[in-house]
Amino acid sequence: MTGGGFTASANDFEAKITPIVILSCIMAATGGLMFGYDVGVSGGVTSMGAFLKEFFPEVYIRTVEEKELESNYCKYDNEKLQLFTSCLYLAGLTATFLASHITRKQGRRATMLIAGFIFIAGVAFNAAAQNLLMLIIGRLLLGCGVGFANQAVPVFLSEIAPSRMRGALNIMFQLNITLGILFANLVNYATNKIKGGWGWRLSLGLGGLPALFLTLGAFVVVDTPNSLIERGHLEEGKTVLRKIRGIENIEPEFLALVDACTVAKEIKHPFRNILKRRNRPQLLISIALHVFQQFTGINAIMFYGPVLFNTLGFTKDAALYCTVIIGAVNVISTVVSIYSVDRLGRRMLLFEAGVQMFLSQFVIAVIIGIKVRDHYDDLSKGFAVLVVVMVCVFVSAFAWSWGPLTWLIPSEIFPLETRSAGQSIAVCVNLLCTFLIAQAFLSMLCFFKFGIFLFFSGCILIMSAFVLFLLPETKNVPIEEMTERVWKHHWLWKRFAQDDLVKEEKVVTAD
């Protein structure tokens, strides 16, 4: 079995790392800050007594006033509370289809601009919420902003980056997600100490800062040459390509883009085209990566970290402090990915992380299963520290592998004619699975207890086998040469590309 590993060839397009590329990538990747802040902030505010008392009084009563009557695992089991977290991702799932159309017809830059405006509106609703309805409307608007940003930003980053740096620059998006989560954790820790019970409003309101950065950034950055050429602006596309590559000899890459765009224009229905046989490997891999990413259990920790630690007997401050530590580990480990993704490759990082995540989840399940009971806990300081360490081990592995690479790989494996549709489906699947985990986790924790971590461990075993046997290596491969240099050489997927080639030859012969 071959994994499809390749190294850069002499035919790779020339390019320098220009200031405009760095600036554009930094600006665009603030979409990750926006997404990350929202992931981190929801878990913190749902553990704050003042927030629960105002919007979820039944949960507040169970967690504060009647602790002895409730199972440790079921304190926070409430459908409305889960809906507060999960409805954002349901809205994002819906919005991504409209975002796909705008990304293709109006460009990546326009989609990022819309994402920023919608997110700012959602932040305003949440920070000023007077009832649960306002809170949910705000979360739905945030979801639409996330759907637009997640559709456009990874594609933008993959298209504007030189092939040898595509992995590292694309992971700027994931790095900003982790920075957003860390920032949210720090804000939650600080606002929880504010007297008067209004700290949660500040936590939710500060989400407008990264959205403002993305909006301003969308005014500053240039659209990608791929998008400009695809929309018929050939001269502007050539000018932008020359500017971002920092060289005069951009003709080979420009002609490759024009050829790809010519093929793309012949595709009138990209969502129908993506179902064709030659596109099935990319579609299957993209969907599988996003499903597996969510079923590692990462968002159970990111969304409900403070709630989870409260369940295990941590105080409110200690729970929020632990999430700050985890957020810092998340950021540092993502930096490791930026350094290693274009050196070690995608497959090696994913497989190594699978082993590390499986072991850490299994250890967490064993500790909680032995030490935490339904109506009392016996989690000593030593075991509590060990649980936090194992969570950090798990998060670090995710952050340098499945976190960033799940977004990177789909953005680089689809041909131009189906790239926007492929990214839309990837975002849709990710948000659907995120919604399911966010909506179900607290109920699953109540039902399965420590077994929920064994469930996630089993999922990690399956996805590691998927990487080993079915995922080809794409490092250092120019984005428009994936078919020739990746799919036609993979032990399984080559038959899909070859079957299409045979069919085309038959059509030519018949003509």
From TrEMBL:
Residues 24-475 form the Major facilitator superfamily (MFS) profile domain. Gene3D superfamilies: MFS general substrate transporter like domains (1.20.1250.20). It is a multi-pass membrane protein. One of its GO terms (molecular function) is monosaccharide transmembrane transporter activity. This is Major facilitator superfamily (MFS) profile domain-containing protein. It holds the Pfam family Sugar_tr. The keyword rRNA processing does not apply. SUPFAM superfamilies: MFS general substrate transporter. The lineage of its organism: Eukaryota, Viridiplantae, Streptophyta, Embryophyta, Tracheophyta. One of its GO terms (cellular component) is membrane. It comes from Vigna angularis var. angularis. It comes from the Eukaryota.
